[in-house]
Amino acid sequence: MLLAASALFFTACGEQSADVSASAEDVVILESPGSVAVEVEPIAVTEPVVAEAVAEVVEAVEDVAAAVVTKPVAVPAPAAPAGPIALLEVPESKLIEMLGYLTAQSGGVATLKLDAAGIAALVGGLQKGLVAEMNPQDFPQEAMQAAFGQAQARAEAVQAEAAELPAITLDALDKIGMVMVMQSGLSQLGFGAADAELIAKGFTAGALATEIDPAMEAMMPAFQAFIQPRAEAAQAQAQADQAEAQAVAEKAGATIAVENMAAGQAFIEGLSADAAVQSSASGLYYKILEPGSDVKPTMSDKVLVHYKGTLIDGTPFDSSYDRGEPAEFPLNGVVKGFGEGLTKVGAGGKIVLYIPSELGYGNSPRPGGAIKPGDTLIFECELVEIL
To answer: I want to staple 346 with a disulfide (CB 3.0 to 4.6 A). Which of 83, 232, 293, 351 is the partner?
Structure first.
């Protein structure tokens, strides 16, 4: 459906939850990742990776083809011996026009029941996207959300057979048309300014048609033969771009990890000035503020804990206090340093944990979080109860 374009747009633009701090489930509850390959927060890129989008457009085309080609195409019987049936010869210009038609059909444009001006606005946005005159990522997300909100309201009204349909502004349709270029993967398939007029012509016809034109039936095999190599090339390029971006990210992450581990080591060494700080054989450092009860948890126990986590520079990344309730979890289900540290106090006890990278998240923290590769972690904990 047309509204699927909005999901792809906001994903490509990097829309994320407003809460960028790690939650209890994202930080403390996770098991220690152990020794794994470096994974870091993805580097921002100007073009979205579109392997999934390309696959979707190929699948959409195949779905349309399956719906259209309901019986064998009528062709003259070949002379004996029988051989493969040749594809119907269709000019490339007609196939490009057909791409526009199928784009409108797979997008469900006709179901919006737009008038001529509305279709023209949608086509205008499509052309702007193809010629790269404007980039939908340059618009505020609020404006794009409003545009798709209008489209969704109208689609719902059509489905409900409302007597009066909500209006969609021409500006909203223009923006939606640009996003449809991204949704369909037209640019990644190699179509651009030189093809904009033909695609627009086919799109206009498809936007008006409530049913697939029977004339498309005979051309569908030729269209599939035309589009498949482009789709495969686009997908290969997208995968290559993704691999390159990942390699760059891993290299940058390795550099960051080395720097953060050095900073963490210097911080740990500085703890020697505090006589109250103790260390264990594993490399964990801790300070007991209140010992609590004589009974201490083991690694096989579940506990109820209040805690606050920060980096060595004071940056907070998680806090059960901020959530207003302690967290419950098994000690063998958290990062090594955190689990071990809580075995040092009893119920009611309070402790500060200084967790080196190798006992925390190493080089593989949650992407997008405050914790970076090689970071040393500090937790202020209160063991509320041994469960």
So the answer is: 293
pTM: 0.52
Q: Measure the CA–CA gap between 122 and 114, rounded to whole angstroms.
A: 10
Write out pLDDT tens, residues 95-140: 999 999 999 988 889 889 999 999 999 999 999 999 887 777 777 8
Residue with tokens 């290559």: 240
What is the sign, positive or negative, of the torsion defined by CA atoms of 202, 206, 208, 212? Answer: positive
Alpha helix locations (H) across 131-214?
A: 141-159, 170-184, 196-208
Flag whether 15 is in a domain: no
Residue type, 254: A
Q: Domain boundary residue among 217, 241, 265?
A: 241
- Is residue 29 assigned to a domain? no
- 281 sits in which H/E element: none
Q: Which domain holds residue 331?
A: 274-386
- pLDDT tens digits, one per residue of 307-328: 999 999 999 999 999 999 999 9
Angle of helix 92-106 versus helix 196-208 axis, rounded to 10:
50
Domain count of the fold of the chain: 2
Examine residue 211 and state whether it is found in any structural domain, yes or no. Answer: yes
CATH of the domain at 354: 3.10.50.40
Name the band, by pLDDT with cuts 50, 70 and 90, for residue 60.
very low
Tell whether 378 is covered by a domain.
yes
Residue that is last in its domain, among 200, 224, 241 = 241
